[in-house]
Amino acid sequence: MELRPQASAQKREQIYQAAVVEFQEKGFSDASMDRISARAGVSKRTVYKYYESKEKLFQELLCRHWGRFAASLDVVYDKDRDIRDQLTALGRAEGALLTNPDVMAMTRLVMSEVLRSPELVGENEEKTDFQAAFETMLREADADGVLEIEDPKVAAEEFIALIKGKAFWPVVFGAAIVTAAEMEKIVESSVEMIICRYGV
């Protein structure tokens, strides 16, 4: 019997959540579709109906996880607001995720598996644009004359690198998650460097 769309979506989510737990406990290589089906309380056949392989399940985890980063950066440029305040708000939005233990635990899992098996990203997977919000704000600030930026894409990469260099990559490779106070200092320092480099 065909499931109603809502019931089908719930079943898919049930399987996905079971897979998340399995990947967190076992890692990708040792994760088992049998255990995922058991965790989800469905047959293995049902799991394969929604996800044709373990790789597809992990690719969805990747997509959702990185999508969470992109979705969190909802700061929009406001020409009537001080640019330093706006860049700080954008940095804090990124920092809020980088200081979240659950988010960073998942990030460690994702990065360790992707670094081990780059093909897990999937050849045809659409890449999440992590820097779109940064690039858009910097481009609009340049157009408004409050910053002078020749290449907003490069400037966005620089801004993100300033934050992630201290609060993302060290954590991925085993360092402690930065505290909220430490993140505030990182954001303030990063914004100051961008203002010094591109301020009018």
Automatic annotation (TrEMBL):
UniProt lineage? Bacteria, Pseudomonadati, Pseudomonadota, Alphaproteobacteria, Rhodobacterales
| Domain HTH tetR-type residue range list | 9-69
Name the Gene Ontology molecular function terms of this record.
DNA-binding transcription factor activity; transcription cis-regulatory region binding
Q: Which Gene3D superfamilies match?
A: Homeodomain-like, Tetracycline Repressor, domain 2
Q: Which UniProt keywords apply?
A: DNA-binding, Transcription, Transcription regulation
Kindly provide the name given to this protein in its UniProt entry. TetR family transcriptional regulator
DNA-binding region listed in the record: 32-51
Keyword check for DNA-binding, yes or no: yes
